[in-house]
Each structure stands twice: as C-alpha cells, then as structure tokens.
Specification:
The protein is of the alpha/beta class and about 325 residues long. It has two domains: about 180 residues, FAD/NAD(P)-binding domain (3-Layer(bba) Sandwich); about 130 residues, FAD/NAD(P)-binding domain (3-Layer(bba) Sandwich), CATH 3.50.50.60. β20 and β21 form a beta hairpin.
C-alpha cells in the first residue's frame, strides 16, 4: 500500500507517523513545497525577533522520519490531482502515485488589494524564509506597519518591537476563520503591546500604499491617516490552498470539504489541518479551524482512518487557541 501526503506541517507529519504505526511495511511519502526541514510555524515571530535561531524551531515530530522509513521529498508543489488515476502532478514536472492521498497543504496569506498594487512594498509572514527576510530588512529600517487580525498580527508586532522598531499595528477586526481571541484576553494583550510602545489602530483598514522611493512607503488607512514607514508586514489570515484541486473531482468550499472521518467525497482522499473544512457533528456544520494543536490531532486521525480506522473527529475549542507551541499568547506579549 502506498500513502502520499501533501504537506510537511504538523498534520502531514502526524498522519505519516500514524500510518507507519499501523502499517509497518507500507510506502509512506511526504511531498512538500518547503525546502527547509519541518519546523514549528508558530515560532516564526521568534525568528524575526532574534529570540530563536532557525535550527531551534525544527519540529520534533520530523526528527525521526528517516528512522521510521518515511520519505520526505522537498521542493514539490502540487499542481494537479488526477483522482481517477491516483496520481499527483507537481510543478517540477514529476508525478507521484498513491493508494491513499492526504492533502495537508495548509493555506496562503490573504493579501489586501491595496498591497497587491505595490507587490514589492510588503512582506508576508508565512514561512521560515519570510521570517528571515523580515528580520534582515528590519535591521535596516526604523518604522514598521503590521497589518492583520488575531494572534499573528499580535505576534508580528511584538517581534518587531522587540527588535527596536517603531511599530504601528493595524487590526481590521476579528479573524474570519478559526476561534478569535476572547474579548478579555485581546484587551489585555493589546494593552501589553501598547505599554511596550506599539501603536495600535483597531477596526480600520488599509486604503492605499504609496511607494515614495523604493525604501519609504506611505500607508493610508480607511480613516484618512497617513503613516510613513520603511517596511510593511502582512500578518494576515491564511486562506486554504485548494486551487490545484480544480478538475480533480474533490469538492471544496472555502477549504477542502471533509466528513467527520476527514474523508473527502473521493473515498481514498483525505484532508487535514488548515486546508480542511471539517464537518462538526455536534454543530452540524462545516468549519475551518486554524491551529497547531488541531492540525496534529486531525493529521493523526486522518492517518489512522486512511489505514483502516473509523474514528470520528470531535472538535474541541481548546485545540485551536491558547497555546502557541509552549507558551500562552498573553505571556508572550509582555
């Protein structure tokens, strides 16, 4: 039996390990567009701030893959899924076949239209490469604008302020996906950021970005304020990556639609983690819930179910927020 897993994040690795545990002789292959070894994405702001080095955020789950005879193939972005022939085509021209496929490719940052008019003016914070580029640029600038709701905006603002940047955090409102920070916690965290020198603009948006000379930019808010800065960080929500599934027969809404077993409408294709739109049997609705702990839980269950299990996924709010790999967000904002 051959299991192909797209994505080397927490869901993909947890699934691979679950399959290996149940089927010692199966072929288990992880294909990922990343080039770096699996790492802890919630720690990316610590790379920006300099609190951690890149090697320190290696994912402990990924360190035993070779010993468990789980292959990981890097630099492979899925381009098309042929569910009729059980194969995936990649952007590098190669193909992989499978008996069972798990899609755990996560998502891509949602970039505001105002940013797209000046693609060289901003950085996203989504990968290890992004974090390293942001840190390098921040060492040569003084004022940074951080745009984005929720924990990633908070973490990006905290990290850049720790570097000594003058930081303006623009928070447009509550995240559309997952579980937003509760009112009391958000108030406390925002107050801590302010006490540390971060200027916050809440419930507003960015109307335009002007490039003055390739080094200095003017950010205009929807309220008419103008902020001059040397860098802009889009610490935004991630939209599930589903475009490569067009024509595959796999149904997708905002995310990849899966049932309570994390199985898609194609019987041998499953999805887990940030790209999955999971049916909640208690609420009788499909939901996207971003989060590290939830991705591990979904990945493990999907792996077990691909290998013949019949476990139902039960959503717990605690899986989706509260801890960012090791420490509560409220503690990190200090």
């Amino acid at each position: 039996m051959r299991y192909l897993i797209l994505g080397s994040g927490p869901a993909g690795i947890a699934a691979a390990k679950a399959v290996r545990n149940l089927e010692p002789d199966a072929d288990v292959v992880i294909a990922t567009e990343e080039y770096a070894a699996p790492y802890l994405r919630p720690c990316l702001p610590d790379i920006v701030s300099g609190e951690m080095e890149p090697t320190a955020i290696d994912d402990p789950q990924g360190k035993t893959l070779a010993a468990e005879k789980i292959e990981i193939r890097t630099g492979k972005r899925a381009r098309r899924v042929d569910s009729a022939k059980n194969r995936v085509a990649f952007s590098d021209g190669t193909e992989e076949t499978y008996n069972f496929l798990l899609i755990a490719v996560g998502g891509s940052p949602i970039v505001p239209l105002a940013f797209l008019r000046n693609p060289g003016a901003f950085f996203t914070l989504n990968t290890l490469g992004d974090a390293l580029r942001i840190r390098a640029h921040a060492m040569r600038s003084d004022v940074a604008v951080v745009y984005g709701p929720g924990y990633l905006g908070i973490e990006a603002a905290r990290a850049l302020r720790k570097l000594g940047q003058q930081v303006v955090w623009i928070s447009p409102g509550l995240p559309r996906f997952g579980n937003p920070i509760s009112g009391e916690a958000e108030v406390k965290i925002t107050e801590q950021l302010r006490n540390n020198g971060v200027r916050t603009l809440e419930a507003t948006d960015i109307a335009d970005v002007l490039d003055l000379n390739g080094k200095t930019y003017v950010v205009r808010t929807a309220g008419g304020e103008e902020i001059r800065c040397q860098m802009i960080v889009a610490a935004t929500e991630r939209l599930p990556s589903v475009g490569f599934l067009e024509g595959s027969g796999v149904k997708a809404g905002t995310g990849i639609l899966v049932d309570e077993y994390l199985r898609t409408n194609v019987s041998n294709i499953f999805a887990a983690g940030d790209c999955a739109e999971v049916f909640d049997i208690n609420r009788r609705e499909s939901r996207i819930n971003f989060g590290w702990r939830s991705a591990i839980k979904q990945g493990q269950l999907a792996g077990e179910n691909m290998a013949g299990g019949g476990k139902v996924y039960i959503r717990n709010t605690e899986d989706y927020f509260g801890l960012l790999y090791g420490s509560p967000l409220l503690e990190r904002a200090k």
